[in-house]
Design a protein that fits this description.
Layout: E1 5-16, E2 23-34, E3 38-42, H1 49-56, E4 64-69, E5 72-73, H2 79-89, E6 90-94, H3 105-115, H4 122-131, H5 147-159, E7 165-169, H6 177-194, E8 197-201, H7 205-208, E9 213-218, E10 221-227, H8 231-245
Parallel strand pairs: 3-8, 3-9, 6-7, 7-8
Antiparallel strand pairs: 1-2, 1-4, 4-5, 9-10
Length: 269
Amino acid sequence: MDTEWAVELRGVTKKYGRGRDAVHALRGVELALPRGGFTAVMGPSGSGKSTFLQCAAGLDRPTRGSVRLGGTDLARLREGRLTELRRTRLGFVFQAFNLLPSLTVEQNVGLPLRLAGRRADPAAVAEVLAQVGLRTQARRRPGELSGGQQQRVALARALVTRPDVIFADEPTGALDTGTAADVLALLRAVVDGLGTTLVMVTHDPAAAAYADEVLFLADGGIADRVRAAGAEQIAARLRALTGRSGRGAGDYGGADLPAGTGAAEAAPR
């Protein structure tokens, strides 16, 4: 990448519909995320988290404004070139794992390479499986693995193309507390050890505590941000936003839970 910024959003607005029925999912978002950082994105339902992720990852185009990934202006790319960029320079991890049950672990991990028109190099696949602690599981199928192991496969699949940025959408939402802590520690290690840029949407303050910085969205804009914060401080910021926006505390997922709930005990802050 030819810039210090991995992701840039400049005046990004996203509107759905027209007239009185129009919904402003994002309202002039200004943001620049550095390379090699771990950023968590939080906010209540309807705050714009999902739209933010989709626009930042080039999965949806903003109504106004620009999105740049490593200096590349996504608005200038035709759909085919944008698809190629997503396949080669971005990685994705989702709550539901999205693994193909008929393929083995190593075949699932190598799939992004094949989709990008490259050979699924066995050595490259073995390397990323080793990085996520699954070298011995290469010949198994997803149904033979635990939820935590399946999410590790999904992370290996995201890493295999050596992407500029990994976008993770509630990556621990389907996992129990202990397994979630293991996956979060692995995400932290990927950022620290490989210099990967990671952007994670989450509802859980304990998960967000693994990040270098937490962004709080409300009503389509960045309402607050905090660096190097623990789960209790993050939850307190969310509660403050609840009072400011008038939303119910339940809209913030785990934000209204007592401090220490979830994976907080294992959080590195």
